[in-house]
Amino acid sequence: MVMAGCTINADVLVALATDGGGDIRVEVEVDAETVAEIGGPEALITEDLASTSWVVSREVAADGSVTVVAEQPFASTDEAADIFAEIGGAGLNGQLVATRSQQDDQDDFRIEAGFDLSAGSQALIDDELIELLGAEFAERATFDPEAGDTVNVTLRAEVPGADAPAVASGVLGVAEPLEVVATGTIVRAEPGLARAEAERLRREADDASQRSTLLTIVGVGGLLVAALLAATRLRKST
């Protein structure tokens, strides 16, 4: 819900793992003034997510601001695209393409993601939301940039092999696309080198085993020699 004179910061993170799965995390921070205007933290409605796969938590800071976090894992890059499209619904037109390409000696990862923020807060209002909260909500859930209302959106993408996440920021209502591209590569040991290393370790283990066996034989042989010498001396003395 967006009220007059409010500041809302939204952070969306798409994190891709080495197996092609990963996690999508949405964090929304609402400033204390807005929280007070809407009637307190309880007025931030998240019950509509209870029947979905999103895991939702919230934290109320000492200054009265509230942070709501929604997370959902994905098992494949195709599933990630479907989950990402749920953020903001059709109004933000969220697009995500995540890929994992396996080569002989490396894995390449790429994320392309973006939102269309140009429609402003009205882009977040759909028929289901109006039905849930009432028709009056559509009129109240607007913001006026000239009055200091701001919704900042940050989009981040993390892929294996990259030094840092790719980050892009935008403002709801500004007619500029919010897009981010992240790439990374994980280099694997070449199969031939891996086999050669395994063979070297096997040979070392065999050599150690042979040395141990030889020492055992020498040790037992020494005892036998000593016993023979003792027996010889014993026969000579008798």
Key descriptive features of the protein:
238 residues, 9 strands, six-stranded mixed sheet, 2 domains
Structural write-up:
The structure is a single chain. The chain has 238 residues and is an alpha+beta fold. 33% of the residues lie in helices and 32% in strands. It folds into 2 domains: 7-187, no CATH class; 189-238. It contains 6 helices and 9 strands. The strands form 2 sheets. It has a 6-stranded mixed β-sheet with strand order 3-4-2-1-7-8. The protein is elongated. The N and C termini lie far apart (112 Å). Mean pLDDT is 75; it is low at 211-237.
Element layout with pairings:
Layout: E1 7-16, E2 22-30, H1 32-37, E3 55-60, E4 66-74, H2 77-85, H3 89-92, E5 95-102, E6 106-115, H4 127-133, H5 136-140, E7 150-158, E8 166-171, E9 178-187, H6 191-237
Parallel strand pairs: 1-7
Antiparallel strand pairs: 1-2, 2-4, 3-4, 5-6, 6-9, 7-8
End-to-end Cα distance, whole Å, is 112 Å
Shape: elongated
State the order of secondary-structure elements, H for helix, E for strand. Answer: EEHEEHHEEHHEEEH
Tell me what portion of residues adopts beta-strand conformation: 25-35%
Unreliable spans are: 211-237
The count of domains is 2
Strand order of the largest sheet: 3-4-2-1-7-8
Q: State Rg.
A: 33 Å
Can you give the mean pLDDT?
75
Q: Which sheet architecture does the biggest sheet show?
A: 6 strands, mixed
Helix content: 25-40%
Question: What's the short version?
Answer:
The protein has 238 residues and is α+β, with helices and mostly antiparallel strands. It has helices at residues 32-37, 77-85, 89-92, 127-133, 136-140, 191-237, and strands at 7-16, 22-30, 55-60, 66-74, 95-102, 106-115, 150-158, 166-171, 178-187.
